[in-house]
Design a protein that fits this description.
By secondary structure, the chain is an alpha/beta fold. It has 7 helices and 5 strands.
């Protein structure tokens, strides 16, 4: 099974902007593999997606449904590796998750993660590059 790690901003964007490249990448990942999360990455996702500033895009009820859907469709991983490689230490949790689970790819728009591409042979790609690299975009 192909395993993907999406950072918080990529998942949040995919939930708030239904026509976005992030959403297309998220859907394609769900169709072709499994999305991984750890206790730490899930906690950050929940914290960010439930912020009141996003009420103007999607109702809180819909966002809570999306969180539940992500938990159900995704796969929880207990992280046992500690990494201190990212210039933004808050992003190390995505590297730790990817290495622990032997993920096939990390999807992010975060420059602090993208600069590390590839990380221990794991590609770190923007949502657009993820679609170009792993799939035929002409679909």
């Amino acid at each position: 099974m192909i395993k993907y790690v999406f950072d918080t901003n990529s998942i949040v964007s995919s939930n708030l902007l239904p026509e976005s490249v992030s959403r297309k990448a998220y859907i394609k990942a769900l169709e072709t593999g499994i999305l991984l999360y750890s206790k730490e990455t899930l906690s950050e996702f929940v914290d960010v997606l439930t912020r009141p500033k996003f009420d103007k895009y999607v109702s809180i009820d819909e966002r809570i449904k999306e969180i539940a859907s992500f938990e159900k469709k995704g796969f929880a991983i207990e992280v046992f590796i500690k990494i201190n490689a990212c210039r933004d230490p808050r992003d190390n949790k995505f590297l730790e998750l990817a290495l622990t689970a032997k993920a096939n790819c990390i999807v992010t728009g975060d420059a602090d993660l993208l600069i590390l591409h590839p990380f221990h042979s794991i590609p770190i790609l923007t949502p657009g590059d993820f679609l170009k690299t792993f799939f035929d975009r002409s679909e």
